[in-house]
Design goal:
By secondary structure, this protein is α/β, with parallel strands linked by helices. It has helices at residues 22-30, 45-56, 71-84, 104-113, 131-148, 165-171, 180-190, 217-250; strands at residues 9-15, 36-41, 61-65, 89-93, 118-125, 160-164, 195-202. Helix 2 (45-56) links the parallel strand 2 (36-41) and strand 3.
């Protein structure tokens, strides 16, 4: 799968028990021409069978995690595999089929035109989006704005984005579960990575459609709250150090 071009993207799909939607997502993104890399995060037998069929049919390369380590751990495993294979960028999409995958081409072109940038989806929710989910995202984005001293990131939680791999791996995000998406985006901003926000429609699938949520209300909210505590603290320390380094030089003499 090694690609020698200066811009060599792959499409990265982390998956955990998405037996009903994974194949359709792989087929839909595969038509855009970029190689597809699926990371199976310790799924059960049914979902692993679907991933195995995809691997045997050579529709995607599959990275097999021995146990469920969390979305962040799966994405990081995908980064390492993608970089080792010679890719420069990874367009991450979730395996649940919630995002408008017709926008994959738009995101790849934006990354090609701006190879140093993090290209983030800005979600456009359908009317049936759960109100609690939307409020939770607004709270998260409030804290992210504080951590980044502005609004370079319109939405830090959506799993539809193009990562410049070298810059992303250099940030070394610690989060292994749902907090990962937030942390890696903030740390890329801290590393002076440009950010592009592009609109993408999002629809929450019903259980009958194969919709599966792996968000655990207590566990993941605790992890995200602790993440924001750490990031806000670190952001304030960074701001203080910058002021000490540059602010005093710019202050007028007494």
């Amino acid at each position: 799968m090694t690609m020698p071009d200066a811009f060599a993207p792959c499409i990265l799909i982390p998956t955990y028990n998405n037996a009903a939607t994974l194949r359709q997502v792989v087929e839909r993104v595969g038509r855009f021409g970029a190689p597809v890399l699926v990371v199976d995060d310790g799924s059960g037998a049914a979902a692993r069978a679907v991933a195995r069929e995809i691997e045997v049919a050579r529709e995607a390369q599959v990275v097999w995690c021995p146990h469920n380590g969390g979305k962040g751990a799966a994405v990081k495993a995908g980064f390492v595999a993608a970089r080792s294979a010679g890719f420069t960028h990874a367009l991450q999409v979730d395996a649940d089929g919630q995002h408008d995958l017709d926008q994959v081409g738009t995101f790849l072109e934006a990354a090609r035109a701006h190879p140093q940038a993090l290209v983030l989806a800005s979600p456009v929710f359908s009317v049936d989006a759960p109100r609690g989910r939307r409020i939770g995202r607004e709270i998260n984005n409030f804290w992210v704005a504080i951590e980044t001293f502005g609004r370079p990131i319109q939405d830090a939680m959506i799993g539809f984005r193009v990562y410049p791999l070298a810059a992303t791996l250099a940030t070394r995000p610690a989060g292994d579960r749902m907090e990962f998406d937030i942390e890696v985006a903030v740390r890329l901003v801290w590393a002076a990575t440009p950010v592009l926000n592009l609109p993408v429609a999002v629809r929450y699938l019903t259980a009958a459609e194969g919709g599966v949520s792996h968000f655990r209300m207590v566990r993941d909210n605790v992890r995200i709250s602790w993440l924001h505590t750490r990031l806000v603290t670190e952001a304030l320390i960074r701001k203080l150090l910058l002021w000490q380094r540059f602010g005093k030089r710019l202050s007028p003499p007494a």
